[in-house]
Specification:
By secondary structure, the chain is an all-beta fold. 0% of the residues lie in helices and 44% in strands. Strands 1-5-4-3-2 form a five-stranded antiparallel β-sheet, with no helix packed on it.
Length: 75
């Protein structure tokens, strides 16, 4: 079972999506989610296990935007 932080999920068209980091670029990936908790959701389709998702994506991020990876901060 694969999980994704809810902070990475956003509405896209009729469904939901996340941005993943691919070669230093943000890539839009539509996802199908299952059960949701307070902080995470089960991914039924769309993501590969181990992919790096962008939490709290800013409005300026679009498919293909250059991104830099930095360590996550604890909340």
């Amino acid at each position: 079972r694969s999980l994704v932080p809810l902070a990475a999920v956003f509405r896209h068209g009729d469904g939901e999506a996340v941005f993943v980091v691919d070669g230093g670029r943000a890539r839009l990936v539509p996802v199908t989610l299952g059960r949701r908790g307070d902080r995470e959701a089960e991914v039924l389709a769309g993501l590969s296990v181990g992919g790096l998702v962008i939490a709290y994506p800013a409005d300026m991020i679009t498919d293909g935007t250059a991104v830099a990876v930095r360590p996550a901060t604890r909340r």
